[in-house]
Write a structure and sequence with these properties.
Heat Shock Protein 90, rod-shaped, alpha+beta
Length: 367
């Protein structure tokens, strides 16, 4: 239920609905016998406007949606040309266009809409159609600028959130790399320095045990036993420090996914997956990042499933979204960059359509 109401709660959409309600209330008296048709057109206008986000990045469907909005707006103006408020629908339409398209596309579309508005008002018997169009043209410019800057601020906020997530993920990888390097350094120091001195101590204790006067001393036997146990403990510590290595990839991937309202990341990482090389971890992280961006921008996916598993001496990765990939699959700059980055890390990449119609990415990298 919340997902269905979410488009209505967006600030621009909520403002549009309040404006449409005001227009409906003001033109109701002029509709007369066309009241049913007028309300149906207003309802269709509101429905299509609220569903524009669901069309995603499909250009033809979005153009068709705006064509329906324009037709509904002009039909309502034709049914109620003299009230003076029905052209507000054109203001809403131009604002919506400014949200989705750059100015060089909005300006000719707005010019065509205003010319059509003038013709409809004049045909409907409006006393001063030119003046009415001029007045509403100013409202359209104001609404378009507000919508444009609102979307620009929203896009800037999203970019900043992605950059921040990128920095956090990179910092996590760098911290893991530094920690692993320090752990390895400590292990080597313990092995080379402490191990060397303990070995020397053991040899000296063994030499003392060969002295007839000290051979039977219990203190010497205790010291030899403690030195042997300490050497064993040191070996275990060094071995643990060398084995407990690897990048915390899960934390980095969740940091990358945090700014995206959708798709939601669903990560399944096998227990035996350990990536010690920071370059391999970064290549995998960038691949998931690009897959998430691609799914959000082109596929309108709700979820991104990422499975990471170990395959002998390699890491296998499967990424699949529940969006709608367009066949035939074409590699844009993002996917091409993903393939090149994996190739530099010694990995391979394969793209296909999933059973759900989304994009499926299968990759393999050195462990």
């Amino acid at each position: 239920m919340h997902g269905q109401l979410k488009p209505l709660l967006q600030p621009l959409n909520l403002a549009a609905l309040v404006t449409l309600a005001t227009v409906a209330w003001s033109v109701d008296g002029e509709l007369g016998g066309h009241r049913l048709a007028g309300w149906a057109l207003l309802g269709l206008f509101a429905l299509v406007l609220m569903r524009m986000d669901a069309l995603g990045q499909r250009p033809r469907l979005r153009v068709a949606g705006y064509a329906v909005l324009a037709a509904c707006a002009m039909a309502v103006v034709a049914l109620a040309p003299r009230t003076g408020t029905s052209p507000i629908l054109v203001v809403v339409l131009v604002a919506a266009l400014a949200v989705d398209y750059p100015a060089w596309r909005v300006l000719p579309a707005a010019a065509a809409l205003n010319l059509l508005l003038y013709l409809v008002l004049r045909a409907g018997g409006h006393a001063a159609p030119g003046m009415a169009v001029g007045v509403f043209l100013g409202f359209q410019a104001f609404a378009a600028l507000v919508a444009h800057y609102a979307r620009s601020a929203e896009a800037a906020r999203d970019r900043l959130a992605q950059v921040n997530a990128d920095l956090l993920a990179t910092r996590a990888l760098l911290a893991d790399s530094i920690r692993d390097a320090e752990r390895l350094r400590v292990a080597r120091e313990l092995h080379d320095v402490a191990g060397h001195r303990l070995t020397a101590l053991t040899l000296n204790l063994r030499a003392l045990a060969d002295v007839p006067a000290l051979a039977g001393r219990p203190e010497l036997q205790v010291a030899r036993t403690m030195a042997a146990e300490l050497m064993g403990d040191l070996r275990q510590v060094v071995q643990a420090l060398r084995q407990d290595r690897g990048v915390d990839l899960a934390t980095a991937l969740h940091a990358i996914a945090a700014p995206f309202p959708r798709p939601a990341l669903r990560l399944a990482m096998a227990q035996d997956v350990r990536i010690e090389d920071a370059g391999t971890a970064e290549a995998l992280m960038r691949m998931v990042q690009e897959a998430m961006t691609n799914a959000a921008r082109h596929g309108q996916a709700r979820h991104l499933d990422v499975a990471i598993r170990r395959q002998d001496n390699r890491i296998g990765v499967t990424i699949e979204d529940d969006g709608r990939a367009h066949a035939p699959l074409r590699e844009g700059n993002g996917l091409s960059g993903m393939r090149e980055r994996l190739a530099e890390a010694g990995g391979t990449l394969a793209l296909s359509m999933s059973a759900r119609g989304g994009l499926r990415i299968e990759a393999s990298l050195p462990a």
